[in-house]
CoA transferase
Amino acid sequence: MGALSHIRVLDLTRILAGPWCAQNLADFGADVIKIERPGAGDDTRTWGPPYLRDPEGNDTAEAAYYLAANRNKRSVTIDIASPEGQAVIRDLVAHSDVVLENYKVGQLKKYGLDYDSLRAIKPDLIYCSITGFGQTGPYAARAGYDFIIQGMGGFMSITGERDALPGGGPQKAGIAISDLMTGMYATIGVLAALAHRDRTGEGQYIDMALLDVQVAMLANMNTNSLASGRAPGRWGNAHPNIVPYQAFRTADSWIILAVGNDGQFRKFAQAAGAPELADDPRFATNPERVRHRDMLVPQIAALIEKRSKSDWIATLERAGVPCGPINTLDEVFEDPQVVARGLRVDLPHPTAELVKLVGSPVRMSGTPAQAMRHPPLLGEHTESVLREVLGYDDGRIAALRTAGKI
């Protein structure tokens, strides 16, 4: 029994931010019913290649992108643009605790599926809307895409190599970071609202915006700017406040050197065969190393490129100097720590026999997050949900299907 096994979530979201939130809740045992368009479904089902492959090596209809954010859910296809489909949604709301949606501002109101309409059915409903810019403000009507939000929210102004260096310029993250972080913050908001409801019986509305999240998640870079009155620049793989704290090329690959204090720097200098670096007053303390980084970093780079990645990691780990490799994803899933933590999970799948996924990183002793169900096929659970949750009989289900409403 998961921590949220008593909770039912009606998931009207698609793409990534909303599905990521819903998957988090599903991993903790919530019954997540994913509502999709008949015949089409979540857009990401076709965001490939790559696609999940069947035992003969043929592509299935499930893109790998879709698989990443939809395990542990049940898929129900409903045409919410039709009165019949809207009626089904309202019936499901009466049996749900949480509604998640990421439609454009005001779009669900015309269907009678907005918060005010649905809380009349379920007064203690928790309703979470996810949009690019939120429900208020001059940009509320704009469509919000992760890439654009990374730029508008300041992330790309501090990500990428310095302009003066080769390859310099703004750079987005390698993943849709504002989408994913919005999904995480939305999860927190839903859990907080559930705790409040359990204490008071009150539901509430949650307004999540990608831009809000992107700004908030810049953490110390925000406060650096606010405290100094200056906008931070891009540092590539370096750190604005700590030196040396960046990636270095070895003889055969790359490593990350993360020296967090002066004692660690002295250990590094000794391990690197250059103890004089730690005695040099320009480098003896972190503030001085930050001031003289342009003198120090080239010397460290010259030392590190003489030896292999494995040699450096072994040497620095023995010396107690924080370091690590820059792994490709195939190397990640072969890493003994990743294997020991069980991050990869394999689940049975009806068309591919097996689907390889990454499980929740949350470790709980009493109610652990679990990957129990494969990302559903489109409409895989439509009939079972309508029967089990709503008590619809075969005739009613057949009529809805014949009319193309499910």
Notes: The first strand starts at residue 8 and ends at 12. Residues 8-216+339-402 form a domain with the Rossmann fold fold (CATH 3.40.50.10540).
